[in-house]
Structure formats: C-alpha cells, structure tokens
Amino acid sequence: MERSSKTAKVLTHGFLILFTAAILFPVAKVIQVAFQDQQTFDMSLLPVPDPELLTLKNFEDVLGRSKVEGLGPELDEADVEKLAAFLAGVPAPPVDADDDPDDDPDDDADDDADDDADDDADDDDDEEDEWEVPGAMGTFMKGKGCFACHMLGELGRDGLGGDLRVVGRRGKATLAAWLAEPTRDRAQELGLREKPTGAMERETVWLFGHQLFNSVVVSLVTTLLGIFLATTAAYAFSRFRFPGRRAGLLAFLVIQMFPGTMMMIPLYILIERLGLLDQLLGLILVYSTTAIPFCVWTLKGYFDTIPKELEESAIIDGASRIRIFWTIILPLAKPAVAVTALFGFMTAWNEFILAATFMNDETAQTLPVMLNGYVSATTVEWGHFAAGAVLVSLPVVALFFMLQKNLVGGLTAGGVKG
Question: Minimal CB count within 10 Å: which of 1, 180, 219, 358?
Fold first, then answer.
C-alpha cells in the first residue's frame, strides 16, 4: 500500500513537471528570439539566447517604431527634377466656354440657342477632354506620396484621383522650388494657391506610442463600461423575476455559441453608418457588447450565492435598492468583479480581427494589429514580432499579479449555490 502511494506521488509530480515545462517552453522560446539580434526563428531546443547575439535592438526597434506624416517621404534631387518636369509639362486643362471671362454678354443668347444642337458633340468632347496620368509616372507619384498632387490640388485621397492639368499652370522652376521644401510657408512664398487646404507640415509620428495609448484607452474604457453594464444586468437577473428573464438568459447563452467573426459584417455596417470607423469609440462599443454575455453569466452565478437576507435587513433599515447594490452587493462580489474585469480587459487588449477590420489608419490601430505588421505573405520578422509580443503581454501579466488574491475565489464562486 505504501509503495503504491509513493509510486502515485512520483507519477503525479512527474506529470506536473512535464506539464509545466510544456507550458513554459514556448514562452521561453519567444523570450529567446526577442533578445537575439536576428529576424529568423531559432530552431534549437535550448531556449536560451546566444550570448554572441544577445541584444535589446529588437525592443528598441519596436518601441521606436514611427512614420512620417504629411505630404509624403523625402524627395532627392533626381525625384524633384523628374516630378517638376512632368508637372510643368502636363497639358493645359480645357476651358469651359460658359466660364470664359472674355465672353461678350451679347453672345449669351446665341450660345443658348446652340446648346441643344451641341449636346451630342459635347458628350464626345467630354470623352476627348479626359486625361490620365501615364502609368509609369502614376506609379512613381503614388510611391512618393504624390507631394504636388496633395498640395497643388485636384486629387483625391488615393493620390491619383483627380486632374493634374491644373498644376501645369506653374513653371518648372516654381514647382521644383516647392518640391524641395514642401511646407505651407514655402507654398505661400511661391504663390501656390490651388487648394492648399490639404497641405500639412511634415512630422514624425511615434506609432508605438499611439498604438499603446489606443490599446490602454480601449481596454480600460471597455472594462469599465462592460463591468457597469454586466453587474447591473446580472443583479437584475439574479434578484428580480420579470417577463422575458429566462429568455434573456438563454439569449446570452446562445450568443456565446457563435464566434465573433460571424458578427463582423453587420457590426462593420453599423459602425460605418455611425461614422465610427477609425474611431476608438467604435471599437469600445463593439468590445463592450461582445463581452457582456459572458460577464453577465459569471456575475449572476456569484450574486446567487450572496444571501438575500442581507438585502432584506438593509431594506428594513430603510436602504434603497441602489444603496444596497453599491454598498453591500458589490463589495461582497469583489472576487467575481475582479475576474470579470480581467476577462474584459484581456478581450479588448488581445483582440485582433475586429481591430484590423475597423481600424485602417495606423495611428488608430491597437498593439495586436501592430504585431501583425511584422508578418507578411513571404517573410516574418521573428525578432521584432517576439519583442512586440513580450511588450504586449506585460500589462496582462501585471494585472494577474495585482488581482491574484481575487482570482481563485472569483473563478470558483457561483459553481455551487447556497
């Protein structure tokens, strides 16, 4: 009997050691790749950084990730010469006869009389008046951010969506002078007046800082909003009997059966109609609503374990329902609230698919979307990806340590009623 008991203990401890090693090995490999000065994945079984490759460069690259915003990248002398020569040589735009300042007012009647006869000819002329940027030059301008297009006007957001012929009114020397220093002040000095509203000074934007701020704001607001909605809803489902109560609980349960990606298209339509694409508020609303069903069920199970007699005694003493909820129920439910808050925070912090779909602007994206930027169709920057993964995981690890006292009670509470 004694021997079998010792054997069972050895097997149990051996299993726990293997299980712990299996969990920690991937984490150790990620840390190893993050601290090595290379972008290839180290296939060695020993998850220890090579001393010769040990460096913090990957972390520096991730933390220092930035981009230049404004009219586009820097142009060298050859680019300035090429673009200025092209812009100065584009054909002049057609002049509408109706807008010609030299027209004699007495001729208007004759022009109006000929309008009906010229309708078909005008359609043909419109087709002939269309002019497109040559393919090679269009690719060059798009790659360079289309400096002159953006400031000198007549182009859309793509950089190639309008009529460049208006730019030809400026000489090559003037265009080259501005392209060498594309700022508002320089444009005014040179007399460039065509639609300057799109112009902005070039500036360097710290992408990691923006994305970290976005992740923190979205996660914190999602957690607070989700906790507020989930606690009040769970308390109502736990304490009150009303029509539709059972159907509501079942609806929350059924919603959890479907993956979030199934709701992506209708959510995108709603967010787009509300004008909240590339807005943190849109992402907060999506995350809060998708996390509520799980949070409500978790909190309801805990509220069911709190004796109703406590509330009845408070009612006898004259306390209102709101006072009972805030001063009695919530303090007693702190373990469950902590677990629910951690779940809500982790859901918002780690979510990728919805954030990548709703956020196209890099400065509006969150950290998980930033990590995906190191993965392309053909290559993966493993060093940067691993360093970013370590940085992104630190806040969640810190939260676990802060809330560990409440985690065990919160996760097990509500499993047995009474």
Answer: 1
